[in-house]
From TrEMBL:
It is an enzyme of class 2 (transferase). Its main location: cytoplasm. This is tRNA N6-adenosine threonylcarbamoyltransferase. The keyword Metal-binding applies. It catalyses: L-threonylcarbamoyladenylate + adenosine(37) in tRNA = N(6)-L-threonylcarbamoyladenosine(37) in tRNA + AMP + H(+). Required for the formation of a threonylcarbamoyl group on adenosine at position 37 (t(6)A37) in tRNAs that read codons beginning with adenine. Is involved in the transfer of the threonylcarbamoyl moiety of threonylcarbamoyl-AMP (TC-AMP) to the N6 group of A37, together with TsaE and TsaB. TsaD likely plays a direct catalytic role in this reaction. Residues 23-305 form the Gcp-like domain. NCBIfam families: gcp_kae1, T6A_TsaD_YgjD.
Length: 343
């Protein structure tokens, strides 16, 4: 099995070929950091234009790298949401055109499903069910994954995602964009106990997240002029991790026994986050697994892999060529919003 994957939901343009043996046969990725850096965040219109310019030659390049033709692929998988709608449309429409031209099935992938299944691309031993902490730029959720397409959400954020909090902290501290890796690096030189910061939601019996108050506290600490920025970075990171661990305990208790704890999404690239989760898993006698950092942040290999997982389902059916791009698309359609807030 060979699937072409396309990702364009935020600010990475990516294409990849993945086979049924979990081999990433070829992949290319172009980040738009330079385009968006002057604005301190992703500008949707600039992102869509950059995807439109880069995607077609990138797909040609990936096929050339692998020495295969489109006709050698078994399906074309593309992110169909959630994300910035202009970018999603560029990738999805490209995939439709390729599917039509090659007479191959189109598979419209939920970007969050790409993140959710990425640990199975990296770790062949990872079986369902597993507990998933999905921590990215736009989402912060705890889910029970019982199979492909079977996601039950136990927690979400009532305001910001954890990755967003890293990005905002980086902006406050003047570290530029994107912020996560910069905060992690600076935090290594700081003291995580130096700055008193809140741990929002800790003690709540519901496992939901909140990071807006933490971000405001970071801003006040910075404005006070009393602290080194490395200490603020380290203290912020520690507060975020404390929240994640506390919320996970509540969610795991509610979830019922699952053998494995899994983390995915951009923040899963963070080494301190990973080791805190590893400790939690050990304490609960769970196995822990996380994809390598390059599979945590946005990429097309995880989209191709989700396509392979879908293709291998007994009841697989290709998606229709008129399927719409979706700016919002919850993984668990039955999940109730936390206190009426975001998905
Ligand atoms: P979503 O997947 O929710 O649609 P996204 O695709 O923009 O959002 P990802 O690419 O999965 O998000 O992750 C990007 C986020 O991960 C950014 O907020 C970034 O700051 C964060 N991130 C990346 N590396 C690290 C790191 N080493 N430490 C902390 N955060 C990180
Ligand atoms: Mg990005
Ligand atoms: Fe993502």
């Amino acid at each position: 099995t060979l699937v072409l994957g396309i990702e364009s939901s935020c600010d990475e343009t990516a294409a990849a070929l993945v086979d049924g043996n979990r081999t990433i046969v070829a992949q290319r990725i172009a980040s738009q950091d330079e385009e968006h850096a002057p604005f301190g965040g992703v500008v949707p219109e600039i992102a869509a234009r950059a995807h439109a310019e880069r995607l077609a030659p990138m797909i040609e390049g990936v096929l050339a790298d692998a020495g295969v033709a489109l006709s050698d692929c078994d399906a074309i998988a593309a992110t169909a949401g959630p994300g910035l709608i202009g970018g999603v449309m560029v990738g999805l429409v490209s995939a439709k055109a390729l599917a039509m031209a090659s007479d191959k099935p189109l598979i419209a992938i939920n970007h969050l499903e790409g993140h959710a299944l990425s640990p199975r691309l990296a770790d062949a031993a990872l079986e369902f069910p597993y507990a998933l902490l999905l921590v990215s730029g736009g989402h912060c959720q705890i889910l029970r994954v019982d199979g492909v397409g079977q996601y039950r959400r136990f927690a979400t954020t009532i305001d910001d995602a954890l990755g967003e909090a890293f990005d905002k902290t980086a902006k406050i501290l003047g570290l530029g964009f994107p912020g996560g890796p910069a905060v992690e690096q600076l935090a290594r030189e700081g003291d995580g106990k130096a700055v008193p910061l809140p741990r929002p939601m800790i003690g709540s019996g519901e496992p939901h997240f909140s990071f807006a108050g933490l971000k405001s506290a970071v801003m006040r600490a910075h404005d006070s002029g009393k602290y080194e920025i490395a200490d603020i970075a380290a203290s912020f990171q520690q507060a975020g991790i404390d929240c994640v661990i506390d919320r996970l305990q509540i969610a795991l208790n509610a979830m019922g026994p699952v053998p494995t704890l899994v983390v995915a999404g951009g923040v899963a690239a963070n080494k301190v986050v990973r080791s805190a989760l590893e400790e939690l898993a050990a304490a609960r006698e769970m196995r822990f697994t996380a994809p390598p950092p390059r599979l945590c942040t946005d990429n097309a290999a995880m989209i191709a892999w989700a396509g392979i997982e879908r293709l291998q389902l007994k009841d697989f059916a290709p998606d229709p060529l008129d399927i719409a791009a979706r700016p919002r698309w919850p993984l668990d359609p039955d999940a109730q919003p936390a206190r009426g807030a975001g998905v």
